């Protein structure tokens, strides 16, 4: 049985899937798509995913895209127990809430601020930077009094959040004011296998430093 993952390593959403698969010991057949070269628009890929987005997973003929859908599918299908995605409705609701926070707030505000700078050499917008700082204050508050984003155990909610936070870090966003985030970052790094090779500081710096070298 082959599980294909169409991905781009520069994408935090793709890295979240890679981290999840590594944690679950699920082997993926990686299919790198070069987004700047528009390989995602190849007819054979569009046939799989009409939205032509990465990540896209193909598991023995089953096709799913959107990173949170992929990681929860992998955990439910290949996880050995419920620890990462408990069936308790309240715990699950809190996890889903944090998944929405990652995509709808934390990552969205990253994209809103940094994408114009990286892609069009736009002048940084202080108001958008303040919105990122606000999002980190939210995350810092969520972590008050416990070790992970939902309680004291790693759940699937921590994985996309750490992928997003490492993207911020590589983009020279200052994490130092957010003490709970820094403590959580260290804990997640220790418990996620493959962290350094997938989304660690060294590899992320290599990916993002070229954006800064091209700035005026």
Automatic annotation (TrEMBL):
<dbReference type="GO" id="GO:0006749">
    <property type="term" value="P:glutathione metabolic process"/>
</dbReference>
<dbReference type="InterPro" id="IPR040079">
    <property type="entry name" value="Glutathione_S-Trfase"/>
</dbReference>
<dbReference type="InterPro" id="IPR036249">
    <property type="entry name" value="Thioredoxin-like_sf"/>
</dbReference>
<protein>
    <recommendedName>
        <fullName>Glutathione S-transferase</fullName>
    </recommendedName>
</protein>
<dbReference type="Pfam" id="PF13417">
    <property type="entry name" value="GST_N_3"/>
</dbReference>
<dbReference type="GO" id="GO:0004364">
    <property type="term" value="F:glutathione transferase activity"/>
</dbReference>
<dbReference type="InterPro" id="IPR004046">
    <property type="entry name" value="GST_C"/>
</dbReference>
<dbReference type="InterPro" id="IPR036282">
    <property type="entry name" value="Glutathione-S-Trfase_C_sf"/>
</dbReference>
<feature type="domain" description="GST N-terminal">
    <location>
        <begin position="1"/>
        <end position="82"/>
    </location>
</feature>
<dbReference type="InterPro" id="IPR010987">
    <property type="entry name" value="Glutathione-S-Trfase_C-like"/>
</dbReference>
<comment type="subunit">
    <text>Homodimer.</text>
</comment>
<dbReference type="InterPro" id="IPR004045">
    <property type="entry name" value="Glutathione_S-Trfase_N"/>
</dbReference>
<dbReference type="Pfam" id="PF00043">
    <property type="entry name" value="GST_C"/>
</dbReference>
<feature type="domain" description="GST C-terminal">
    <location>
        <begin position="88"/>
        <end position="207"/>
    </location>
</feature>
